[in-house]
Structure formats: C-alpha cells, structure tokens
Amino acid sequence: MDALITAAARALAAGDPLGALKRIALREDAPALALRGIAMAQLGDYVRARALLRRAARLFNPQDAVARARCVVAEADVALVARDLGWPAKALDAARATLQEHGDRVNAAYARYLEVRRLLLIGRIDQAERMLAELDPAPFPPASRIVHELVAAGIAMRRLRTEAMRAALARAARAARRARIPALTAEVENASMVLSTPAARLIANGAERLLLLDEVEAVLASKALVVDACRRVVRDARTMVSLARRPVLFALARALGEAWPADVPRDTLVARAFGSKRADESHRARLRVEAGRLRAVLRALAGVSATPRGFVLTPRRAPEVVVLAPPVEGQHAAVLALFDGQSWSSSALALALGISQRTVQRALDSLEAAGKVQSYGRGRARRWMAPPIPGFTTALLLAAPLTAKMDP
Asked: Which H helix or E strand runs over 198?
C-alpha cells in the first residue's frame, strides 16, 4: 500500500474525511475508491459512498478476498446509517467469515456489530442481546469498544434497565476520550441525553406527569396495575397480557385505566373504542360484547364490571391502576417516532414497525400532507426524513411486541 493510501486511511480513522480526500480524490484504483467511499459516507453522501464501495469491490482482484470483504462491511455500515434495513444479511455474514478466516478480527467483529445494530432497529432485542453476548470488546481498539457499549446501552434502554444503560454509556464515554474521534464522542453524548429527557407520561387518578426513563422502570417494577400504552400491554407484578393485536380491547382498557377508580360512561367508551361520536343501541350492544372479551382476557389481572352508567376496572391484586402513555401521541405517532434525523425508506419503516409497507406508505402520505415529514427521490430510491421530536425520547416505541402471558 502506497504512502497516500496509508495517509488517507489514517485520516479517515481519525474522523477527517476531507483530509483523506485531499490525498486520493483523483485516483481510480480500488484502494482509493474504497477510501473515497468511506470518506463520502462520513460526509453524509450515502448514495455516492455505496456506489464507490461497490466499484472498489469489483476492481479488487479475486485474490484480494479480505479487501473485498471489507468493502462489503463498509457498504453495510453505510446502508445501516442510511436506514436501508433490507440489505442482504447473508452477504455481510459471508464477509465476516472471510475476515475472521484471514485473521482480521477487528473488522469481523465490526461486521457482527452491524448485524446486532440492525436487529436492534427492527425490534429483535432477544436475538441482538444473544449475539452481543458472544462478542468480547476487550481486545479491540477504542472505536470498536464504543460501538459495543452503545449497542449494549440501546438494548438496556429497550429492556428498561437504566443502571445497565448508565454503566454502558460511562464505558463508551471513557473509550471515546481515548479514541478522540469527534463523531463518536458526539454519538455517545447524544445517547446519554436519553437518560435526562422525558420517556413517557404517567396518567393516574385524573392527573398526568412526564417520566424519565428510570421513573418508567420504577413504575413497571411497582405493584400497580399498569396499562402500558407504549407496548400495548396490561401488567401487574406477576402477570402480563399483550393487547398489541387487539386495538379495541386495548382502547377500552386504557379508558378504564385513566378513569380508575371511577367508572366510564358507555358513550365515552363507544367513542374511545369505535370512534363513533354518537352511540346508538348497536354500539352499546357491541360494547357489551367487547367488554366481555376484555373481562375474559384480563381475568387474572382485573375485573371489568358494569355500572349503572358504564363500566369500571377493578384490580385483583394491585393497590392502584396507572396508565403509562407515550410522551407524544396522535395519528401515525409510531411512524413519526422512528425518525432520528436519518433518512428512511418505507420498507425499512415497515420492517422496524412490523406492519405492511402499504400501511406505512399511507401514514407517510398523511404526514407529508401535514408537513411533518419530507420525501426526496423517486421509486425505490425514495427516502423520508423528519427531525426527531425535541425534548422527548420515543425509543420505547421501538420495543418488540411482547408475547401475551397469563398465570395458570
């Protein structure tokens, strides 16, 4: 490798893409194209970056298996940052195996971190946690340790383990000071802000207040019956029931939880569950059916009883009922919550939310009409952007759906 390539690689490792481009901007050989692609990625031109990395991979000789594998890993990294979650995982796994076979353990581990980060983005937390546990960051340079700890912090956040999250972020901050790479330092600082920004709202006894992440953890660990609107579950200290796929039942449970210990009028429940402004006899009949279904589903947690004017929720073991709601709500809030300053494709949003791409596209069209998101590009290259919601952390909405569980 010649001196210019070596100098450009060092500049990129130090987070100086312009310094790298000064040395190799006019070169068309494979190593230079690969480094130019990484430089363009650091500058935010992801489309150009991926094109350069693909050209570099094609130009490397078949004998340069390690160089080709590194290009695949770099392209996967760019795809992840660009929120293109549909890139071929098999190609990345093959590249990781090649790097591992040839002794490039640092880049092989980085390929594995990319896989873990993708799993985290699409809500497969269990799988991401198992894969991360197989990686030991101790032998790696500080930059790799930062990535490891940020992923660990992301998993801890979605698990609502705030102490583990704080410890991971502290380790990431120490590694960032050693790495002295501004972009990584900023990423650690941004991740740390989650701990000091509201993560949910608590609704109880007619009052409402904002909660930090550790306060959310405390509520879920308490003896209260919690109607969790972030994950659409109802739970107490012993039992959890998922209503994620039963929106009418969850709407009823939430309305009853918000009013506890009082009852809720039938007309109010009809409006909350069915979206009807005026309740007729058919609506009231349907309400009786749905209330019976809710009573059966929540039988281990609470009773759902009729009153002269409506229905009331009565916890069986818990001393009180509280509702845990997202910090920001409204139509298509779950889609809007995913935007983190990066551009997303509709297919990536659908994958992360676990819903159909057509449903996401309709939501994006509505949000664009309301001026909340912007799109650029056409066809398969179309991407959507929106600024993250200021002052709130909406990462709880990214948690994977919880499986319903009932005590025998």
From this structure: none
Say yes or no: 24 and 84 in one domain: yes
Question: What pTM does this model have?
Answer: 0.77
Cβ atoms of 332 and 368 closer than 8 Å: no
Which tens digits make up the pLDDT trace of 38-81? 999 888 888 899 999 999 999 998 889 999 999 999 999 988 88
Rounded to the nearest 5°, which phi and psi values hold at 189? -65, -40
Confirm whether 137 is domain-assigned.
yes
Residue 400 forms part of a structural domain = no
Together in a domain, 95 and 134 = yes
Q: Is residue 217 one of the residues assigned to a domain? A: yes
DSSP states of 296-318: HHTTTTEEEEE-SSEEEEEESS-
Q: What is the domain range of residue 177?
A: 3-195
User: Crossing angle, helix 3-13 and helix 30-42, to 10 degrees?
Assistant: 20
| Average pLDDT along the chain | 86
Q: 311 has which bridge partners?
A: 264, 306
Distance between CA atoms of residues 239 and 400, nearest Å? 18
User: In 78-219, where do the E strands start and end?
Assistant: 200-204, 207-211
274 and 165 in a common domain: no
Burial class for 192, CB neighbours closer than 10 Å (0-12, 13-18, 19+) = middle
Please report which confidence band the pLDDT of residue 365 belongs to, taking 50, 70 and 90 as the band edges.
Answer: confident
Residue 399 confidence class, pLDDT cut points 50, 70, 90: very low
